[in-house]
Amino acid sequence: MAAKHHQILIVGGGAAGITVAARLHRAAHDVPLDIAIIDPAESHYYQAAFTLVGGGAFKLEDTRRNEVDLIPTDVTWIKDAVASFTPEANTLTLAGGPTISYNYLVVCPGLQINWGGIKGLKEYVGRYGVCSNYSPNTVEYTFEMLKSLKPGARAVFTQPPMPIKCPGAPQKAVYLASDYLAKRGIREHCDVRFLTATLAIFGVPFYAKELVKVAERHKIPVSYNHTLVEIEARNGKAIFDVTAGDQKGQKKTLDFDMLHVTPPQSAPDFISKSPLANATGFVDVHANSLQHVKFKNVFSLGDAAGTANSKTAAAVRKQAPVVVRNLLHLIKGDAIEEAYDGYASCPLTTGYGKALMAEFTYGGKPTPTLPLDPRKERYLNWWIKTTGLPRLYWDYMLKGYEAFPPHNTSYVDPAA
Ligand SMILES: Cc1cc2nc3c(=O)[nH]c(=O)nc-3n(C[C@H](O)[C@H](O)[C@H](O)COP(=O)(O)OP(=O)(O)OC[C@H]3O[C@@H](n4cnc5c(N)ncnc54)[C@H](O)[C@@H]3O)c2cc1C
After folding, report:
1. Which of 102, 127, 348, 351 has minimal CB crowding within 10 Å?
2. What pLDDT, in 10s, does the model give residues 292-336?
3. Which position among 108, 131, 190, 346 bears the catalytic label?
4. Which tens digits make up the pLDDT trace of 360-416?
5. Pocket lining: 165 vs ligand 1, CB cutoff 6 Å
6. What is the pLDDT of residues 264-281, one digit of tens each?
């Protein structure tokens, strides 16, 4: 028997969980709702600014809030981790032991970072020049390293196979690093490289064409199909598997003074082992309604959802209203909407003071919000990234307000 019951249980109080709770809480003015969020974390981070922290353009403390201050009043916070699900019985079990039952479930615990997936990473990240923007515990070390590099330094930046949080973030780190070294007047005396496990610089060809030019302008050699597998931190060596091309199957070793690692990521184990998962381990939801394919009282959004959009907070911004409307439709017995179009956005900081605003939907269709050529690097996009979006996140999105104007779904590439 379940120890407790809530009408709506939300698993994860990150970008997705808080946004859904806030929107439901607003809706509860009309329909009484009993909502609970399960999350063990005391701190909530605006992770989208971590790249800026690593580039010295944002303070880590400004990315953090107390979780308790973000959870809407009247929403119960269960400060524990979910261990397993029994959706056939509408229950889940907490790591702390108790079982909780629900009428409706929203699953959004984000991505799992697999620090152990690269030999030597877990032991040495944060030391010997091995840094990563992917954790609040290590992100400040990226900028420390950038400040410490001397002429002749070798800085290596890596990207693992997909999925990862914000697929543009690994290359944003390398552009900021290159620009920072240029500002220090030592860029031409440093070797800065980007090695990615993917076969293209970005998953959307429309934007990838421009990003290839950005990397060329920065004189950053880009190696595709290179997966970082081992770090010999004390000797400053990074070892890669070459996964395609002429050198397929070979190992390649690079010397480094600074190694920025984007760690491998996956669906959280407790999701992939559960009956909620699809074959890739993510929550098996319909791409447009975000309703579970089998368990109709279950929804998922954010990084843990098994949808083909780019895993970003921008996607969450457009998914949350759909999940909330569909939950309310289900409660009232109305038809479910298939309204999420796969929107995601990645403001690609290509240097200090400029960014390219990549916005797109399923299939890589460009869908800009502003009536401007989305391929162009602009100061306006930098301002949106560094000032506008953080404000929208904390003051609008996480409070359940409509956070952004609609994106243009009928944009046509004038060059096509
Ligand atoms: C370096 C970096 C750069 C990024 N750049 C951008 C960007 O420029 N633009 C953009 O839009 N996005 C960006 N993102 C991605 C963005 O942060 C994520 O897509 C977004 O946070 C996803 O929201 P979420 O709620 O699904 O997951 P999260 O926000 O990660 O929240 C997941 C929550 O679930 C909780 N949780 C985990 N396990 C359990 C459990 N067992 N039980 C209960 N709760 C659990 C966690 O404690 C956490 O609070 C970036 C991320 C990183 C790391």
Report:
1. 127
2. 999 999 999 999 999 999 999 999 999 999 999 999 999 999 999
3. 346
4. 999 999 999 999 999 999 999 999 999 999 999 999 999 999 867 899 999 988 777
5. yes
6. 999 999 999 999 999 999
How close is the Cα of 303 to the center of ligand 1, in Å?
A: 7
| Residue located nearest, by CA, to atom 49 of ligand 1 | 14
Distance (Å, whole) CA 403 – CA 318: 9
Residue 131 is among the residues annotated as catalytic for this protein: no
Which secondary-structure segment (H or E) carries 134?
none
Tokens of 4: 């407790």
Active site residue 346: yes
158-186 pLDDT tens trace: 999 999 999 999 999 999 999 999 999 99
List, as one string, the DSSP characters of 198-233.
SSSSSS-HHHHHHHHHHHHHTT--EESSEEEEEEEG
**At the topology level of CATH, where does 4-111+267-332 sit?**
FAD/NAD(P)-binding domain (3.50.50)
Distance 248 CA to ligand 1 centre (A): 33
Residue 257 corresponds to which amino acid?
A: D
User: In CATH terms, are 4-111+267-332 and 114-265 the same topology?
Assistant: yes
CATH, domain 114-265, list 3.50.50.60, 1.10.287.110, 3.30.420.40, 3.40.50.10170: 3.50.50.60
User: In angstroms, rounded to a whole number, what is the distance separating the alpha carbons of residues 208 and 202?
Assistant: 5
- pTM higher than 0.85 for the full model? yes
Q: Which of 108, 131, 166, 190 is catalytic?
A: 166
